[in-house]
Amino acid sequence: MFLGNVLRIITHVLFWIGVYFFFTYYLGYGTRNTNYINSFAFYLMPVTVALGYFFFYFLIPKYLLVKKHFLFGLYSVYTFIVSFFFVALSIFYGMILSHELVVEDTNPLTKTIPYIIFGVYFVVLIVIVLGLLIHNYNAALKSEDLKNKFLATQLQLKEQELKYLKMQIHPHFLFNTLNTLYGFALKKSDKTPEVILKLSGLLDYILYQVNKPNVLLEDEIQHIKNYISLEKIRFQDNLMIDFNYDNNRKDILIPPMLLLPFVENAFKHGIQINGILSIQLNIVLDTENLIFECQNSMKSNQVKNGGIGLTNIKERLQMLFNNNYKLLISEEQNQFKVYLKIPVKNE
């Protein structure tokens, strides 16, 4: 801020020094009486500076920039009328007080009084033009700054919303898994330690990976496999699951915890038919996209509730990919099917 103010002062000083030299050149072109010209130009400077700043700091921002054109024109006329008197007074005093500097047989001024007045108002016109350019430039900077702040605020809100959605996944996932663990604990099952170990691995993934914008696809697949292992322990022989995935490309990145809610819902809302819960999972990669398919057994007349998982994932998909994705959810032949296609990134 301080440096900016210093640069602004230096710029103004240099500008008015330039105006002073313009007066000396304009009024003294063709004469050798430089002392008289320098003194006379000095007397024109106060009224020129005052008039220029009056337009620059008052009339332009207060009336012209806010589109009060009539008032700007009216006050400009008043200003020129009043200033004409002070310009003429400056010329009169300049001629009298610089009279002793006149060199014999030398014309002190090469311009008549109308041309001198024209020179003063020409400088004021330049100040007005520069003022408009500077004010417009500052307005553009402020507009761009406000736009950037607005975008930053929007981004911050999106990040907070996305963080909130991720936080919703954790209780949903933990609720399902802890129920499984609770069941084994009641039965005093020997598999309880194994379930706890797998759960700790999943929690490690959630706590340290889910806050990242992207994770490796192979990590996400391993996370799903761990979750399936927990469910296999719970369902025992009542589960038939087929998980096929293409993981030949090790550098593929996707948002964390993006696919698991579909798998969770397949287990949570899937219905056993003939005592068997059937789930089919497929992950396929093409050149630029990942295709995820999930289907689970259900009854045709089953009343479904998507729960937190599906609602959450739809909101996350919209925030992450902004319609640049495809999500299809359908029911057919005792099967609940999910088809998801998203763009992927390389590490």
Automatic annotation (TrEMBL):
Keywords: Kinase, Membrane, Transferase, Transmembrane, Transmembrane helix. The chain crosses the membrane at residues 7-28, 40-60, 72-93, 113-134. InterPro entries: Bact_2-comp_sensor_kinase (IPR050640), HATPase_C_sf (IPR036890), Sig_transdc_His_kin_internal (IPR010559). It is an enzyme of class 2 (transferase). Its EC number is 2.7.13.3. Residues 161-239 form the Signal transduction histidine kinase internal region domain. GO terms for molecular function: protein histidine kinase activity. SUPFAM superfamilies: ATPase domain of HSP90 chaperone/DNA topoisomerase II/histidine kinase (SSF55874). It holds the Pfam family His_kinase. PANTHER family: SENSOR HISTIDINE KINASE YPDA (PTHR34220:SF7). This is Two-component system, LytTR family, sensor kinase.
